[in-house]
Amino acid sequence: MFRKFKINKNTESDKILVILNILEGSNVNQQKHIAIKPQSHNQMKVLIIGANGQIGQLIIDKMNDSSDFTPTAFIRSEDQVSQFKSKGIATAVASLEGPVDDLAKKMKGQDAVIFTAGSGGKTGPDKTLTVDLDGAVKAMEAALSSGVKRFVMVSSLRADNREIWEKSGIKPYLVAKHYADRILKDIGLDYTILRPGRLLDEPGTVQITLKNTTDQKGVPRADVANLAVEVLRHPVTISKVIEFNTGDTPITEAVQSL
Predict the structure, then answer these.
(1) N- to C-terminal Cα distance for the chain?
(2) Residue 35: strand, helix, or coil
(3) Looking at 74, 173, 191, 244, which residue is catalytic?
(4) Three-state SS for 211?
(5) Structure confidence at residue 214 (pLDDT)
(6) CA atoms within 13 A on the CB side of 151
(7) pTM for this prediction
(8) For residue range 214-256, what is the model confidence (pLDDT) as tens digits?
(9) Is 191 a catalytic residue?
């Protein structure tokens, strides 16, 4: 159904303007706007570096469903923005291989950082060096310069065991994690280092063990994410290295026992 509009000047340009205004209004009404999650004064603002990875996505989703946190997804490509925007999650786009100042700008106003980025198994040792090690250190330096004190590192259970590096099949990764962890301990941040065992693509149980971790089979990625979120609720985890695997102790209880 068409509506009639009165045009003061009967010119072709006026008619075109009216038509354009009608079309513009129609397009605006039809668009779906996804609002970014509103922040409460009591919510902790957390930047998740490596948000597009498997563990990172699990952390993002868990925080987005919580009333305790406001997550921001740190990603390396504009092409990844839409998948987070569709969930109402804020994004920060930058490269871990870029300048520290660029990372620091993205961290401004955050309360904490979770680092779960990695170069991935399909890249070579050079990327492991520039992302898993130097990228992690750049993130620490950026956190310091932007005033973000709380820093959670997702590392690996075998990062401190040089004896098994050679036969592990992932020596460059473990070496990178080892030295990133060492630097984090001394750089002046309120750190927590998480060292999960072999990562499993299984549903999380929200239960872990902190004892005899080398005797266990591994831990679901979902429970690594659960623990990464939980440690931010407990100041007792500051300056702690938490080695863990799947077990029968509820994560909250395990954290409170530290």
Answers:
(1) 69
(2) coil
(3) 173
(4) coil
(5) 75
(6) 29
(7) 0.83
(8) 766 799 999 999 999 999 999 999 999 999 999 999 999 999 9
(9) no
